[in-house]
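Troubleshooting: if your tokenizer reports a length mismatch, compare your output against this known-good record of 92 residues.
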Amino acid sequence: MAREASEEAGLIINLQDLVLCHIMHRKAEDERVSFFFKAERWIGEPRNLERHKCSDLSWFHVDSLPTNVIPYIRQAIEETLRGKAYSEHGWA
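Known-good structure output:
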């Protein structure tokens, strides 16, 4: 997570500042387990360093997320806010 934050958003996050907040078992083309973390602290201002993968990097209030948030990401955010540590997505 710390490496991804550095590569994709230019942030420096110490490992002790990461908290696992949600796990999701999901299915799309294949089966995956995703781990979601929140950062208690970081150094730097977020920048979009992967413009070829992401059109925008902005702060949004959780009650007014953009409509194009990836569905399983939206679900992970909502479940985390409900205090749920685990969910599933994409299963019939």
